[in-house]
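Notebook, p. 212. Picked up where the previous page left off. The plan for this session was modest: take the two constructs that came back from the sequencing core last week, fold each one, and keep the raw output in the notebook itself so nobody has to go hunting through shared drives later. Recording the first one now, exactly as returned: residue sequence, then the C-alpha cell string.
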Amino acid sequence: MRIAVPVYDESLKIFGNTGHTPFFAIFEQKGAGMFKKIDLLELRENPRGNKEASEGCSHKDEEMSAEEQMAHKQEHNILGEIIKDCAVVLVKKACPNTARVFNERGIKVCKVDSNCQSAQDSFKFIKL
C-alpha cells in the first residue's frame, strides 16, 4: 500500500496545509503487525506548492461565486493526479476541495496529530 505525506522537502518535515505542500513524500507499506515495514520511495513535487501557505489558505468558498468555486476545485485536481497511486494521504489540514478531490479518487484522508513534525513519526498516529 502506498501512503502520501505532505512535506516541505527531503527533510520530511510535515507541511501543515496539504493543498499547498511543496512535495508529497511517497511511502510504501509492506507486511503487517511486527513485520510491517514502511519505506520512502520518492518525493513528488506539487506545482501548487507555496511554502508561505503552510498554516492555511486565504481563499474561502463561501466568499466565491459558484463559477469561482468550480474553478477553485479544478485547481485541486492536480493533487489527486500527483498521488493517484496512493491508498492513503496523511494530513494535518486539508481544505474541503482538497479532501473532496482525494475522496473522489478513492484516496483515504487520515488526520495526524497537529504536533507531529516528521513524516516518519506520522505513522504512529494512525492505524493503517
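Okay, moving on. Second construct, recorded in the same format:
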Amino acid sequence: MARKALYMGPRLKRVRRELGLTQANMAEDLEISASYIALMERNQRPVTADMLLKLATTYHVDIADLAQGESEQTAENLAAALRDPLFADIDLPGLDVGDIATSYPTFAEALLRLFAAYRQEHVALADLRAGGEGESPASQPDPVAQVRGFLAAHRNCFPDLDDSAARAARDMPDLAGMRDRIQERHGLAVRFEDDGLMAGAVRFHDYHRRRILINEGLPNAGRRFQVALQLAILEQGEAIDALVADAALTSEDARVLARRALQSYWAAAVLMPYAAVLKAAEGLRYDVELIAARFEVSFEQAAHRLTTLQRPGAKGIPFFFLRVDRAGNVSKRLDGAGFPFARSGGACPLWNIHHVFDRPRRVDAQVIALPDGERYLSIARTVSAGHGGYGAPRVTRAVALTCAAKHADRTIYADAPGNAEPTPIGVTCRLCQRPRCLARSAPPIGREIAPHRFRDTGVPFAFASE
C-alpha cells in the first residue's frame, strides 16, 4: 500500500523561522536546493521520510512534533474560530473544515489571521467601552503595553540570555557563589542589612563604598533573586541593550521597562537554568510548588519561569500568566497559550484567580470554558510581596497559570477533583454572550437588554432575545 504523502509546508516554514534561518541556510544544511525548500513550504512537494529524519537530526527537534499534520492543527484552530457566536447561524460541518485546512491551507491561514485581528479589535472596543462613553484613548503609546507586546513577540523566550545564564549558573550554584562572583569580578561586597539602614529599599548599589546592600527582611528566594538581578545589571548590559534596540519601542519609558524585564529574565534563568527547569517541570508534572522547592525560589518565580519554556526543539507547555490584586487590577501579564484577555474592563468573577483570596497560599486548579467552546486549565494561588518585620507593609495578590486543556494531562492538576465539568467563564462581560449569567456586570456588545415588563428572571442585563 502506498504511503500517504506528507505535506507540512507551514510547519516547515515555522520551524525555519524559529531557528532564524533563510531558505538558503536550510538548503545548505540539508544539502538540497533552496528552490526545493520553497516548494516544500508551499506544499508543492511532500516531505519524504528521509527528509523528515534529516530535519530532526540536523536541528535537534522532535520528529513527532515535525511529523504532526499541520492540516490537523489548522483544522482545529479553524473549528475553534468558527465556534464564535459571530458564526452561530452558519452550518459548516467538521469534514468541510478539515477539507479547507488540507486543500486550501493558505486560505485557512488568511482566515485565521483575519479572525485574530477581529478578536483583537473586539477586545479593544470592549476596553474603550469600559473606560466610559465619550472617553478617547490616550494619544501617547502605553509603554507597558509595548513591552508586553515585545515579550509576546518573542514568546517570552530569549535563548541567548538563557545560554548566558546557564553558563554563569555552573560557576555559582548557590548564593555564596553569586556573592563571590560579584566580589571577584566587580570588586563589590554583598551585605545583608536591616530595614532601617536600607530605608525601605530591597537592594542598593552603594557606589562610593563599593558594596551591594540587600534588605535582610527578604526571604531566601528574594535574596537570591536580588543578587542574581544585580549580576544581570553588572554583566548583561550589552546583550540586553542589543535586544532592546531591536524592539519597536517608541518611548524611553518602554525601553526602561524592557531592560528591567530582560534583567529579571536573566536573573531567573540563573536561579532556574533552562534545561534543568524543563526537565524538572516534565518530571514533576508541572507541580509549581515542587518546582519552586527544588530551585529554592518562590511560587511566583517558578510560575513565571514556566512561561518562558518555548525554545525551539525544547518546549514546555505554553502558559498564559496573570497577576492581579483583590480589586482585579492587573500588575503582570505574560501572553501565551492563545488565551484571550481583555486589557481592561475586569475579568470574569467566575475565574478561580479571583477565588483564591479566600484560601491564601492554597493552589486551586480549575478547568474553564470560554463562550467559543475552547477549554483551558487554570492554576491559581495567592502570593505576597513585602519585606521587613512586624508592621511592615505587605500586599497579597493572586497569580494564575493557564494553558490549553489539551495539555492538562501533562500536569499534576489534571488529577484535581471537581474538574470533570468545566466552569463557563467569559473574557470580559462586554465580550461574553452567555445568557442567564448572575455574575454579569455589563451587557455584551451588540445585544439589546430585555425590557421584562411582565417577567423578571433575576438576571442582570438579560438579553432581549432570551
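Notes on construct two before I forget. The chain has five domains: 9-68, 72-131, 143-271, 299-429, 435-466.
Flagging for discussion at group meeting.
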